[in-house]
Amino acid sequence: MMDTVNQMYIEQLNEDEKNIIEQVLKGFESKRQGTSTSYVSAMYAMEHEFDGETLSITMPVTPIVYNSLGMMHGGITATAIDTAMGMLANKIAPSNKAAVTSQLNLHYTAPIYGGIVRAYAKIIHHGSKSMVIEGWIETDAGKRAAHATGSFYLIDKKQ
Amino acid sequence: MMDTVNQMYIEQLNEDEKNIIEQVLKGFESKRQGTSTSYVSAMYAMEHEFDGETLSITMPVTPIVYNSLGMMHGGITATAIDTAMGMLANKIAPSNKAAVTSQLNLHYTAPIYGGIVRAYAKIIHHGSKSMVIEGWIETDAGKRAAHATGSFYLIDKKQ
Amino acid sequence: MMDTVNQMYIEQLNEDEKNIIEQVLKGFESKRQGTSTSYVSAMYAMEHEFDGETLSITMPVTPIVYNSLGMMHGGITATAIDTAMGMLANKIAPSNKAAVTSQLNLHYTAPIYGGIVRAYAKIIHHGSKSMVIEGWIETDAGKRAAHATGSFYLIDKKQ
Amino acid sequence: MMDTVNQMYIEQLNEDEKNIIEQVLKGFESKRQGTSTSYVSAMYAMEHEFDGETLSITMPVTPIVYNSLGMMHGGITATAIDTAMGMLANKIAPSNKAAVTSQLNLHYTAPIYGGIVRAYAKIIHHGSKSMVIEGWIETDAGKRAAHATGSFYLIDKKQ
């Protein structure tokens, strides 16, 4: 199929589809360069910052994340927040441990229609075996569109 | 950029990347044909069934959904479950109403490494203004990898 | 103060208060006899049954559990469900382990005004270090008034 | 039964039981005086403060709130937090509306063995039909023992 793609398929894409493919290909590039550590964060063009306390992630809200109502899919909102929380948990975890989500609770408080959103994660409880982290996401205009808390387990890293 | 893509970029993709692009392009096709109603469900190759009570969605677990630990990203698991719940809610809702997620709680009970997962949604409470729905996801081997409950609001459909 | 109580205080109680005191004193009795294992379950007159799979608890809905709106307090509903879940978790746990709630999520789906409610608990996931349990509560009329899921950690029992 | 109680029953109570009865009777007093608006908050000797932003509730941790492991029952922790959240919601709500809990999620982060705990509630999202509120509870020593978020519906007040 990829040959077909290469020669004619892409020409037939509509504008949304072209933008998605472009975003995905740029994501591949950022994954190869190590800026993204997964295809998920790469494809959604997530970029993160950590100020020592709060970890934040930005991502553009384009048709790639829309649900059938034309707003950001609640699952992708969860993905942005869970990614921010997971990155924070792994930054805080001892070097021989990895943190994995054991539970995640989200409240959706406003729809997201576009622009660049920013997801935040901040520690609530730091135990020896688990952590509780709060996270939230804000629109361009600074409106909180979702608020979450999550539990993370610490597991031994694979050698 | 798309011209560059068309002529040479795709040849340089590695095997995972080619598979992702192929899955995305097939998703575009299924969205055009109306089989998928959003790019999110299209790109993740979600297919749904409804037996009148339980709505289920299948999706392949490929690198497109991996987190940095090489297992299915918790946010994408949430996306599959939320999609199943949301589709069920909208099937049950009165014809002039749309159902949107107001709250989602997930327990992750096992990692998912591959194969085809199936997410399920089933009604717990059906009120006039809101619904509570339970959802879960199972691996190929029938193991429950996550269990969730969600609250859905009914809003007026845009005319 | 107890002497005052003994001699005159109780005569001045109104009907609701007398009923509460009576329920509390009966609870003390059931705790002494080992039917209740805590003052909480004793005072709320909880009685449990276990059929090998589902653990259920009954309790009367009297003014002792009302909130300021005259319906069963959401926290006491949580107490009934958490107690059923915790009892189930401890029945299932290895004999040298105790199970404690690490997380609890509740959806309230109908108000409870009286009668005898029954709270249920059923296992969703049984891991070596933790469990996920679902619980719900039904009114006399069989209406589901709340639905919950909880996570339980297994800790070493004190010797 | 109350006559029996009055004359001899109370003399036979053990120390814990006497303290519980005393706490309950004091609670009745505070409910009559309108300091407590329900038997639940009265019996647990809850006292609240509101600084215009955060509503907090104190309560003593005595055997009346213990679970069978001798620590504060998770359901009673939920009751303290839900009460603080509900009081806050009702302070903020329009005067013709009452706020009722529709969903509550709690993370338990440390056991509580005694002293006076303080539960807090703070608004996260204030919508026209619902609110999201965060709550937490701290031990005497200032340790966060639980963290929660809840959703509240606004319903018309009974006239």
UniProtKB/TrEMBL annotation, chains A, B, C, D:
Alphabetical list of InterPro entries matching this protein: HotDog_dom_sf, PAAI_dom, Thioestr_dom
Thioesterase domain mapped to chain residues: 70-143
KW 4Fe-4S (keyword) present: no
Signal peptide residues on this chain, from the entry's feature table: none
Xref: CDD domains: PaaI_thioesterase
GO molecular function, one term: acyl-CoA hydrolase activity
Keywords carried by this UniProt record: Hydrolase
Top-level taxonomic group: Bacteria
Entry-linked Pfam families: 4HBT
Keyword set includes Hydrolase: yes
Protein's recorded name: PaaI family thioesterase
Organism: Jeotgalibacillus salarius
